Amino acid sequence: MRGTPQQIIDKYSQLAQDSQLGNDRVAAENFQQHAEHYQRMLSAAQKEQEARREQQEREHRERQQQREDQRRGRIERQESEAGGPGNGDQPDVVLDEAADAGLVETPEQADLQSRSKSPRKPRPPKAKDTGSPAPGGGEQPEAAE
Hints:
This protein has three helices and no strands. By secondary structure, the chain is mainly alpha-helical. The protein has a domain at 5-80. The longest helix is centred in the middle third of the chain and has 58 residues, at 25-82.
């Protein structure tokens, strides 16, 4: 017989049923015993596979726990060598009190601030329509009413 264990079981079960329909009780019993034998073998193999899978999962969890413990140990050693948490190789940062909640200044913000800080030139007073040229030598256009 060739095939998977389930195919062999099905084949012997079918042969047992055919023998029973043909009134051959001895052949039917023989085929049923073969089907039961393969069923027991399949069941044992499945239990063994399940046990192997559980063992692998357990080992995997243990390895993960060991890695996590090692990582924690490294972090604790680094903190103790640096003099406490947060004092590692990070540079000290001095914040400007006028800074907006510690945000980084963008080029757009710097451009806006430089425009608002530069003094504006006063505008020349508007000349009334007297027909005389405006100061500066150019003609003033007439205002639309």
